[in-house]
Write a structure and sequence with these properties.
With 181 residues, the protein is of the alpha/beta class. It has 6 helices and 8 strands.
């Protein structure tokens, strides 16, 4: 993270594998996902801590919108699904604006980003419920980065259809599994 630089062009960071500098633009991100033949591609977005200031969240939300439009243009004629990402930390006004912006573009589904990155559980649940209600019901609604069984159930109850998270896989590699107890 200390090597991460975010600019209008994209994100620049160092590889944790070999230390090489990597420049990731919205266009390059889509190019890579197309090459991987991803079933669902995600736009490049700027995720900030959910506890950041309104100003920081606003700037990231606006950049995410501009990057989403660039990602959509880079998609070309690919039949792969492409999801837009709603940002805005835990600020309802920003989530509303972001949802309006992102749903104005012809994405195949919509993701809620910028959650599970520092906020309290009740803040994540409240924000999820608020933001999911702003998304079209006829398209998939996807919550990024949430993976415990109870968090999945809470998100479904709040209108979310899809999830991903590194937690179950990470815990599984350590011999940990979820049970009823």
């Amino acid at each position: 993270a200390r090597f991460l630089k975010i600019a209008e062009e994209g994100a620049t960071f160092r590889s944790y594998v070999d230390g090489k500098t990597i420049a990731l633009t919205p266009e390059r991100s889509i190019e890579m996902q197309r090459a991987n033949n991803s079933d669902i591609m995600m736009v490049l977005d700027q995720c900030v801590a959910s506890t950041c200031s309104h100003e920081v969240a606003y700037e990231a939300m606006m950049r995410t919108y501009r990057w989403a439009a660039r990602s959509l243009a880079a998609r070309g004629d690919s039949p792969q699904a492409l999801f837009g990402i709603v940002q805005g930390a835990c600020f309802q006004d920003l989530r509303r604006t972001s949802a309006e912006q992102i749903t104005s573009l012809p994405f195949d589904g919509y993701a809620l980003g910028g959650l599970a990155v520092g906020e309290e559980k009740h803040e994540r649940e409240d924000t999820t419920e608020f933001a999911a209600a702003l998304l079209p019901r006829d398209k998939p609604r996807y919550l990024m980065g949430v993976g415990t069984p109870i968090d999945l159930l809470e998100a479904v109850a709040r209108g979310v259809d899809m999830f991903d998270c590194i937690l179950p896989t990470s815990l599984g590699t350590q011999g940990v599994g979820y049970t009823a107890r």
